[in-house]
Amino acid sequence: MTEEEMRKRLEVLKIEHRDLDAAIDALNASGSSDQLQIARLKKRKLRLKDQIAIIEDYLIPDIIA
């Protein structure tokens, strides 16, 4: 995967992460009692966060001072 492809993938993942955050907030605000659905969305959101972190670590290497 090229750096450009990784940057595009990163943007897609960030958008999906924000969308999941909005969906979770909406379910909580509506007083939804579907805690299983909310838990699944939160778990998916955490997986996305991990994927985002992996790509960001690759694109922005640590600088040893």
Distance between the termini: 29 Å
Biggest sheet: strands, sense, closure?
none
The average pLDDT value, as a whole number, equals 92
Radius of gyration: 15 Å
Structural domain count: 1
Helix run count = 2
Give unreliable regions as ranges: none
**Structural class given helices, strands, pairing?**
mainly alpha
Global outline = elongated
Helicity, as a percent range: over 70%
Beta-sheet strand percentage? under 5%
As an assembly, this protein is single chain
What is the number of E strands? 0
Give the helices and strands as they follow along the chain.
HH
Describe the structure.
With 65 residues, the chain is mainly alpha-helical. The chain has one domain (3-59). The chain has two helices and no strands. The protein has helices at residues 3-29, 35-59. The longest helix has 27 residues, at 3-29. It starts with a helix and ends in a 6-residue tail after the last helix. The relative contact order is 0.16. Keywords: Coiled coil.
Topology diagram in text:
Layout: H1 3-29, H2 35-59
Helix pairs in contact: 1-2
Protein name: DUF465 domain-containing protein
Keywords: Coiled coil
InterPro entries: DUF465 (IPR007420), DUF465_sf (IPR038444)
Briefly characterize the structure:
With 65 residues, this protein is an all-alpha fold. Helix content is 80%, strand content 0%. Helix 1 runs antiparallel to helix 2.
